[in-house]
Request: fold
Amino acid sequence: MTVHPESEPKLYRYSRIVCGVSTHVLCAVFTGFITVLAKPGSSLFSWHPFLMTLGFSFFMTEAVLLFNPYSSPVRKLKHKTKGRLHWILQCLCVCCATAGLCAIVYNKNLNDKPHFTSWHGLVGVITVCVVGLQSLGGLPLLYPKLAKGWSLAKLKRYHATSGLLTFLLGSVSLFLGLCSSWFSDSVSGSVWYLAVLCPVLCALVVMSQVTNAYMARKRMQY
Reply:
C-alpha cells in the first residue's frame, strides 16, 4: 500500500512540491556557483572543489530526490527503474568524489603539504569511503538474488537509514569546505552565508523526505 500525495491536504502537498523543486534548483545553482568560483582546469587544485561539489551537492542530492513523491522528475516511472537511476547517480557521485580526492592528494604531494590535517580533510576522506560502501550496499536491492537470507523490506530500511546518514556526512563535508581558507578568501559577507544555506537546506529537505516516507509506512502497519 502506498500513500499518494493526491490524497493529502492541498496546502501540505503544494508546500512539499515547492520544497522539492526549490531543492532541485538550489543544488544546481550551488554547483554552478562553485564551478564558476573554482574555474576547473585553471589549476590542479581547482578540480577538487568542482568535483566534490558536483558529486555531493548535485549527483547525490538528485539521486535521493528521484524518490521524492512530490517533485521527482521521474515520478511516474516504476520503483525498480527509479532504483537503477538512483544507483547510476550514486556511482557518478562516487566517481566524482574519488577523482576530487585524488586531485587534492596529488596537489598536496606536489606542494609537500601534509594530508588530512583538518576536519574538512578527515571528514572528506571518510565520506568518500562511506559513499562507496553505501553504493555497494545498494546492489542487493537491485539484484535480490544477492540478498540471500535477508528480508528485502529490512534491507531497504537499513539502506535508507544509512543513506540518510551518508548524505548528512556529505553535507557536513561540504559545509567544512565552505569554511576553508580557499572559499573564505574567495567570497565574503552575505555571499558566504547564502552559500552555507544551500547544503543545509538541501539536507533538511532530504531528512524530511526519508523520515516522512518511513513514518508513513509505520502508520499504515498499525
